[in-house]
Structure formats: structure tokens, C-alpha cells
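Table S2 (continued). Query chain:
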Amino acid sequence: MVYTITLNPSLDYAMYTDAVEICSVNAVERTAISAGGSGINISVMLGEFGVPSTALGFVAGFTGDEIERRVRKCGVKTDFVHLPHGSSRINVRLKTSAETELNAPGDEVKSEDIMELFVKLHNVADGDVMVLSGSVPPGCPGDIYGQILEYVSVHKIKTVVDTHGELLTETLKYTPDLVKMNFDGLVELFGDKPTTDGEVAEYAKHLQNMGAKNVLITMGKDGALLMTEDGRSYRQGVCPGTVVNPVGAGDSMLAGVVASLTDNDVDFEYALIQGTAAGCATAFSEGLGKRDKIIELMKGLMI
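Corresponding output:
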């Protein structure tokens, strides 16, 4: 089983319009609502590969109920902690010629809520995969992901981390099997902007020296680099196509790689191709990419 943890999920409310004029009334052409959060996106995308998963995290109020309903509708099993206070956040995405995001912080999580989450982690067993991704709500300690990895370390599972700052660095002592970072997170962590593939690879190696076994660096339109535990480096460019929706593309890419982690003998070169196709399928679609599109793009990358 793959477990994805989304501590700060949301309802994403997208509004499509030609332009937005500040301090004025703006007409919206159409809207779309979806359940949001990195782990949730990964769980939904894993379903496109036929990989079952369970989504964990915190939800609250009527918005939390709707998040869970939509996640289950996508065929994902859920085991959320239902907070007795507040309501899950709503993020607004204004889609014009460019995209503007308004992300709410989320409601505060209390110590007893965190304890309930850890109780749910009792279901994790040897052979499982756990994905920790995204931001955390107010009230969560900066080492919450590290605490989770320590808690499940009694099991022989594969662990994946996709976050930044202290949330990331506090996990590295527990040697996660895969760390994913986007380019901005890399710059934030090391305080310098790499300009060549060689420099990106050096930072990936540094992350390995800090504890990560395998490192995936995503660079938007410039593709991605995957550095494996045995010292191999794989580089993959993006698929040709028109970007419609960049939101969730990175999560989709990670889902493609995680789908390969469920195999005992991981082919990382294939995993990177699969992840790239999944990320591009989402970028070229209004919502998360679908299996048929992923397969089409994979064929193009494997020629």
C-alpha cells in the first residue's frame, strides 16, 4: 500500500476569466472545484497507474467533508483525522492569460490532533510506501515530517519526501528513500542558483550526503534530474506541448516515479520517463493528467 500524507489539504476553487481588474467587479466565465494538496494529487495520479493508495491528513468542517468526498470519488481510500474545530481551507486560483493563486494558511492543528494522526500510522506495514508532501497547517511543529519518519522507522518501508526548508532538513537524518525538490526549493536551501546540469547534480549529491538516498530535482520547462543512491544520474527534458495548467504537474511527476517504487527492482531511468510523462500530461490538461495521455507522452519520450 502507498500512504500519502497531506497535512494541509484544500478545496481548490478555479475561476476562469479573460482578465482581472483590481478594485472592480469582474465577470467570471466558468468555475471548477477540486480537492487540492500535494499528497492528494499524488494519490489521485497513482490511480491512473493502477496503484492503490490511502490518503491521510487533517480535514475539518464542511469543506473537509467535501475534500474527502471528492478524494473517494477518485477511487482513493481515505483515513483522515477529522478535526472537531474549524474548517479546511479554500484556495482560489484566478486563471487568466497567467495564473494567480490565493492560498489560505489552514486552521490550527492541536497536539491531540497530531496524536490521532500517529494512531492511524499503526496501519503502516513492511513493504509499504509513504509519501510526505506539501505545506503544514499552523500548530504543526517544524519537524513534524521527521517525527513521522522516526515513528514508522520500525517498519521496512520506502519513504518519499517532497517539501522544503526545515520540514525537509529535519527528515534527512532518517534517510528517506527519495527526496524531491523543485528548482526554487533548491535555491532556497543552498542560497545559490545553479546554472548548469553539473551544478544541479552537485547539489543533488549534497542532499545525498545530508541523508537522502535518491534525489529528484524538477526544473519546470527545463525538465528534471534524478540522482540515484548508486551514483547514477539521469536527465530528462519535458514533452512538447502547450501548457494549460501547471498546478499539480510536480505532484503528478512524483506520482509517476512513486508508482515505480512499488516494484522490488526499481528501474529509475524508466521511473523518470514515466514521471515526466505524468507531469506533462497534467501541465497540458485543465485538471490532473489521465492515463491515455500519459501513455501517449511516454511513447514519445521512449522513441
